[in-house]
Amino acid sequence: MEGEIDALTVRQAAGDLAGAVATGATGGARRAGWVAQLALAPTVLVAFDADPNGAGDQAAAWWLSVLANGRRLRPVGAKDVNAMHTTGIDVRAWVMAGLR
Question: Among 30, 68, 73, 85, whose Cα sits 20 to 30 Å from the Cα of 7?
Answer without folding.
Answer: 68
